[in-house]
Design a protein that fits this description.
By secondary structure, this protein is mainly alpha-helical. The protein folds into two domains: 48 residues; 240 residues, no CATH class. Helix content is 55%, strand content 6%. The chain has a three-stranded antiparallel β-sheet, with no helix packed on it. 27% of the residues are buried.
Length: 299
C-alpha cells in the first residue's frame, strides 16, 4: 500500500510505501526533512532540529563507521538501491567501449548519478536517516540537471580548496612548472606547489560536508573548514584515509576488454563493485562526522 501526500515545505506530491509510516524522510524536490504521515493526504509533521546546541560530541563515531556501516548492506530496505548501484556500475563496465563515444556518455551519466548519490548519502546520514537514499532520476530537463548539478557541486568544492594551489601555479608559469611535471622530486617552488595541492585535498572531506549539508557554497570559509578538523582531528583523519582508499580503488577500476580472459574481466568488475562499497562507507563517514561532531561546526 502506498501513502500519498504533499511536502509540508514546497507542496510537491510525494509517495512512500506504508511500511515507512512515521519514519523520517527527505523531499527530493526541496531537500527538507519531515515525518511520513500515517494515511493519504495527511499533512506531514515537519522535522525540527534541536534548538539547544550540543556542547559535547556524541560518542560512537568509530563504531558507527567501521561496524554499523556494514548493516546498511544487509538491510532489506536498501536492496533496491544497492541493485541499482550495481546495475549502473555494470552498465558502465560493459558498455563503455561497446559503441563509439559511449565511453564519454556512460562516464557522464553514471558518474553524474553516483556523485549525486554520494551527496545524498552525506545529507541523509547527517540527518540521522540510517538508510541509503531512495532512487530518484527525474525526467527530461530534471534528469539532465540531476547529472550536471553533482558534477558542479564537487567541481566547485574541489576548486575552492585547491584555489591557493591554482593561484600559485599560475604565478609560477615562467618557472616551467605544469600539472604534468608537478611531481618531479625537487625542492623549492615545485615542493611548495606539492604541499599546497596535498593540503587542499586534505580539506576536501570537510568542504564537501559543508557544501552537501549547508547547501551554500559561501560557507566554504577557511575558518569553517579548519576549526572542526583541529577539534576532531582523529575522526577526520579516519575520513581522509577512507577517502584516499576509495579514490585509489576508483582509479584502479577499468572497463570490459574482450581480448583478455573472462576471469580477468570478472576480477575487474568485482573491483568496480568493491570500490563503490568503500565509497558508500566513506560518504557515510562524512555524514557521521556531522552527526557526532556538529558541536565543533561554526555554521
Amino acid at each position: 500500500m502506498t501513502i500519498k501526500f504533499n511536502c509540508p515545505y514546497c507542496n510537491a506530491l510525494i509517495a512512500f510505501d506504508s511500511k515507512h509510516r512515521g519514519k523520517r524522510a527527505r523531499c527530493q524536490a526541496c531537500q527538507q526533512l519531515f515525518f511520513i504521515p500515517y494515511k493519504d493526504d495527511e499533512k506531514p509533521e515537519k522535522f525540527k532540529t534541536k534548538e539547544t546546541e550540543i556542547a559535547e560530541p556524541i560518542p560512537g563515531f568509530y563504531r558507527a563507521v567501521f561496524i554499523e556501516s556494514w548493516k546498511i548492506f544487509a538491510d532489506r530496505e536498501n536492496v533496491t538501491v544497492l541493485v541499482f548501484v550495481a546495475a549502473a556500475i555494470c552498465f558502465k563496465f560493459f558498455l563503455a567501449r561497446a559503441i563509439c563515444c559511449m565511453n564519454y556518455i556512460t562516464f557522464a551519466v553514471v558518474w553524474g548519478w553516483l556523485l549525486g548519490f554520494y551527496l545524498n548519502i552525506i545529507r541523509e546520514t547527517a540527518s540521522e536517516i540510517d538508510m541509503l537514499p531512495k532512487i530518484y532520476l527525474g525526467e527530461g530537463i530534471g534528469f539532465l540537471w540531476n547529472i550536471i548539478k553533482p558534477f558542479l557541486v564537487f567541481a566547485l568544492t574541489l576548486f575552492a580548496v585547491l584555489l591557493p594551489f591554482f593561484i600559485t601555479l599560475s604565478l609560477l608559469q615562467d618557472k616551467g612548472i605544469t600539472i604534468k611535471n608537478l611531481w618531479q622530486a625537487e625542492f623549492g617552488w615545485r615542493l611548495l606547489l606539492q604541499v599546497l595541492f596535498v593540503l587542499g585535498l586534505s580539506l576536501f572531506p570537510m568542504a564537501i560536508l559543508t557544501t552537501a549539508v549547508g547547501h551554500d557554497i559561501t560557507l566554504l570559509r577557511l575558518d569553517y573548514i579548519l576549526l572542526p578538523i583541529f577539534r576532531a582531528f582523529g575522526p577526520y583523519l579516519v575520513i581522509a584515509i577512507l577517502l584516499v582508499i576509495a579514490n585509489i580503488m576508483q582509479m584502479q577500476t577499468s572497463t570490459y576488454l574482450a581480448e583478455i580472459p573472462p576471469a580477468l574481466n570478472a576480477g575487474r568488475l568485482v573491483l568496480n563493485l568493491a570500490a563503490q562499497i568503500i565509497a558508500i562507507i566513506t560518504m557515510r563517514s562524512i555524514g557521521l562526522f556531522y552527526k557526532h561532531y556538529s558541536c565543533h561546526l561554526p555554521w
